[in-house]
TrEMBL record:
Record keyword Transport present: no
Originating organism: Arthrobacter mangrovi
Subcellular location: Membrane
Predominant cellular place of this UniProt entry's protein: membrane
Name under which the protein is recorded: Tellurium resistance protein TerC
Gene that specifies this protein: terC
Length: 365
């Protein structure tokens, strides 16, 4: 597959522009409702499908099918990622109006990390053909583990990443709007929202370790692997606000995702030396597994409405009061500048007091 540099540049530019538009559209903190989330989800899915059509028209049906298979796998695995985000936000009792900013930065970081992983995976496959056996075995093991642990959920309190962050980074005890960093009494402090972002990035790295080998089982074209990942990830924020309150209804989805990983692991094993399964067959199998798991889940839980995860009775972090926000200093001023400013203010106050005292003495005389 021959992809000119200008096409790479155009795709990256489009991603940057769309991220900027999304950030501008949500520049003010507000609660994103189901209707807005559905609209944005439709926009992102439309872009992903339209790009697949362009690939199909420009490079042929085989590459088009590989893109759509990779896109569907990444999109499906991302649903589990969305549910983990919901658990993290619930544990930290993050106000809904602050969640989009965290997810925007989380998705931006995910794109960067996925790009690094894809480049590394491509280099490994080109130089060490046996690495495909490792990828295939890892996918089979991950699928088996997901089935065994289908009823287990992330417990943020036991996260090693969170414990290290709390130990190494000074942090405030309350949320200060959408700020990730604040300065108080000259000291730069992280807010709990930054801790949430770090934990979300860490979980995405774990998910990337599963999803990237899965797409390499479908295609070894780096351009298709990256674009399928990118267009699937771009819609994650909208998908979160659309599905976060429906976690309790997708009871069989994790089993479906596990079967998808097992299927692509088998495909990768067979592809190495034995037999190549046509992409259209792989696409049909993935669509069938996901469709059956979703339909079975919705039928088993029919009649149940939207139900957000409950926040802890005693939230770990409150929202800072107006008085606490008023005590904050500009973040990007250095400690020296703050100290100098305080010294000048203190010195000016002392001079004013001295002048005022001299004036009183003069008046007495």
């Amino acid at each position: 597959m021959d992809v000119p540099f200008w096409i790479w540049a155009a795709v990256l530019a489009f991603i940057v522009v769309m991220l900027a538009i999304d950030l501008f559209a949500h520049r003010h903190a507000h609660v994103i409702g189901v209707r807005e989330a559905a609209l944005w989800s439709g926009v992102w899915v439309a872009f992903g499908v339209a790009f697949g059509v362009l690939v199909w028209m420009g490079w042929g049906a085989e590459f088009g099918q590989q893109y759509f298979a990779g896109y569907l796998i990444e999109k499906s695995l991302s649903v589990d990622n969305v549910f983990v985000w919901a658990i993290i936000f619930s544990y930290f009792a993050v106000p809904r109006e602050f969640q989009h900013r965290v997810l925007f930065l989380g998705v931006l970081g995910a794109l960067i990390f996925r790009g690094i992983f894809i480049a590394a995976g491509s280099v490994l496959i080109q130089n060490f053909a046996w690495i495909l056996y490792v990828f295939a075995a890892f996918l089979l093991y991950t699928g088996y583990r997901m089935i065994r642990q289908r009823n287990d959920h992330l417990n943020p309190e036991q996260s090693v990443v969170l414990r290290l962050f709390r130990r190494m980074v000074p942090m405030t005890g309350a949320y200060h709007g959408q700020k990730l960093l604040v300065r108080r009494q000259g000291a730069l402090l992280a807010t709990p929202l930054l801790a949430v972002l770090v934990l979300i990035e860490a979980t995405d790295v774990v998910f990337a370790v599963d999803s990237i080998p899965a797409i390499f089982a479908i295609t070894d074209e780096v351009f298709l692997v990256f674009t399928a990942n990118a267009f699937a990830i771009l819609g994650l924020r909208a998908m979160y606000f659309l599905l976060a309150d429906l976690i309790h209804r997708f009871i069989y989805l994790k089993v479906g995702l596990a079967l998808v990983l097992i299927w692509v692991g088998i495909k990768m094993f067979l592809k190495i030396d034995l037999f190549y399964i046509p992409t259209v067959v792989s696409l049909a199998v993935v669509v069938s597994i996901i469709t059956v798991s979703v339909v079975a889940s919705l039928r088993a839980t029919r009649g149940q409405g939207r139900k957000p995860l409950p926040h802890p009775v005693d939230p770990p972090f409150p929202i800072a009061s107006a008085e606490e926000d008023a005590e904050l200093e500009p973040v990007w001023r250095s400690r020296h500048a703050v100290a100098t400013s305080n010294l000048r203010v203190g010195g000016a106050t002392a001079v004013d007091d001295k002048r005022e005292s001299a004036g009183h003495d003069g008046g007495t005389r």
